[in-house]
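Bench notes, afternoon.
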Amino acid sequence: MAVIFPHDQLGPDTGFTGLRTGRLVVRRFAAADLAAFAAYRSDPAVARYQGWEAPYPRERAERMLAELDHEHPDTPGRWFQFAVALAGTDELLGDCGVFVPLDRPCQAELGFTFAAEHQGRGYATEAVRRVLDYLFLDRGKHRVVASCDDRNVRSAALLRRVGMRREGLQLQSTWSKGEWTNDELYAVLHHEWPGGSEQ
């Protein structure tokens, strides 16, 4: 018999419109984001530790944004990309992705990508914290995980900065861009998150 955890049957967040922080809006992608989205995904420095190759074709970016029009956050078995924009100007800075496992919907996996010109200003840290707030406090997740190439020291530092714990290192676990790479694993539990509690 399957164990049913609290919030396992919460379902997709069909009413999602956006989240705010002091400087940012975390929202759905819009058609006006296309050029900036394709541009930062085409930057070799940004793509270096990601699962795609640069340049990132505009047609592929168009398809992805069109598909996201029909997706909702917190849909088991699906990734959802949140656009991260500057409050006031609505300029696209990057995105945060969240995957909810089909067989474990009380958990989630987190990723993020930011344009090079918007790195080093704390925007990614601010956005990731807000997405974690959403996952734990609004959506009741029990556990959120993230991983990064062990050479990606800036991403690893961000994950530690937002309160995620390094849980291990998987040696040569991913074949990426012609080589075996190591993955650092991070996680945080609901009761460890500010405002969370034991479930």
